User: Fold this.
Amino acid sequence: MPSVLILNGPNLNLLGQRQPEVYGATTLADIEQMCTAHAQRIGLDLEFMQSNHEGVMLDAIHAAKGKYGGLVINAGAYTHTSIALMDAVASVELPMVEVHLSNIHAREPFRHVSYLSKVAVGQICGFGAQGYVMALDALAQRLID
Assistant:
């Protein structure tokens, strides 16, 4: 069974508490539960991880090569600043779907730039927690079909 790593970046551990008017009331634990159940239904093994530290995220991406068939990444603010994360994703040569809870293109101008989108098979934003499920479906289509 193909496996996927869902990697979440800074401040996502505060979901449900942090700016609920932007990010909603769903917690990261809720998203993990929803994704785990969905992955089982569609035939994916799933690992879920969150870090507030860019280096830890880089290490997780590097370790993904040969272990996972694909990645789902919500890099939070690192999306807009980290060339290192972009390079790491490119170097492991795994299909990656970029996810954002809010529509980053409808927010502040600095959020319109995504370094990760340059190495992603696609970007899903603005659909809240459901975006993670959409990302898993997109990867399953690539990994299973």
About this structure: The chain has a mean pLDDT of 93. The chain has one domain: 3-144. The chain has five helices and five strands. The first helix runs from residue 20 to 23.
